Amino acid sequence: MEYKLKKCEQVIHVDGIANIHYFEFTREYHTLMDRHGFRELIYVDSGYIEVKADNYVGVVREGEMIIHRENETHSISCPLDTAPNVIIIGFSCRSPELDRFAESPTQLSESLQRLLTDVIKEGRNVFLPPYDVPNLPDMKKRQDYPFGADQMIQLKLETFFIELIRMCAVQQYTSHETGDGMKMREIRRYIDENFRKRISLEELCFLYNTNRTTLCAGFREEYGKTVVEYINTLRIREVKRLLREENHNLTQIASMVGFSSVHYLSRIFKQYEHQSPSDYSKSIKAKLMI
Fold it and tell me: CA 100, 101, 104 angle in degrees (round to 5)?
């Protein structure tokens, strides 16, 4: 019996990566007008930015993404009132299906956000730091990156674009969450909205009619972190934003973010960031002045 192989159609092909950045910008930071022979994906992880480009002029908000076309003139400006976190990926892809994403921002679903996070993680396996220096023309690769990691960036990025186009085609992203998954999503949303206040496991169990064991196990399985780790991650990200805005001292920031004292803030900050808050502020200023 003779079997016939069917050729796989490749509708999205990423054939090169220029850079994979995660920026923690300061207030009022801005880039000069730039253009280059590859596409550039810009995703706002927190805060918002103002974009000026050939195909779009306006705001890109938290959770939104835009993709500049090849040789499109563009720049970024950060606002006066917040210090945004921004992912920027430069890549080569000739698929015309991506052109539409240059004309207006697109809100990403949680699933697409996770796919984009996977791209960033794989990028750290392949590329050497720094990951947050603007206008870096040649991002160096590691000599000993894990087997297949380079190709994994390509595959994960192509998967992200295929899922993105599918989402836009049906105009609604379908989630296949279980009942427990939906409950964990509700709990996560509550934490996202209230992490600046004191949140206890007992409170979450009461609010969402569950027990401590189910809550802790379910949340960790769904998001890969304990509830406490997730709350601390949000608080530290907010601390970093407030430090970059330079409107408050550390004691005020501790109170605003939900830490019981400035000493506790400093301890947790160093545990997560491996540097003190003051060293973090100095390092951000130094990087953006290069």
Answer: 100
Specify which residues 127 forms β-bridges with: 141
62 in Cβ contact with 44 (< 8 Å): yes
Maximum Cα–Cα distance across the chain: 77
Q: What are phi and psi of 266, to 5 degrees?
A: -60, -40
Strand boundaries in the chain, DSSP class E: 14-24, 39-46, 48-53, 57-61, 64-68, 74-77, 85-93, 106-107
Rounded average pLDDT over 12-29:
93
Q: Chain centroid to CA 250: how far?
A: 25
Residue 13: Cβ within 10 Å count: 12
Residue type, 256: M
Q: Is residue 176 classed as helix, strand or coil in its secondary structure?
A: coil
Burial 237-266 (b: 16+ CB within 10 A, else e): bbbbbbbbbeeeebeebbeebbbeebeebb
Instruction: Give me the pLDDT at residue 39, please.
Output: 97
pLDDT digits (tens, 9 = 90+) for 210-230: 999 999 999 999 888 999 999
Give the separation between CA 84 and CA 24, rounded to whole angstroms: 6
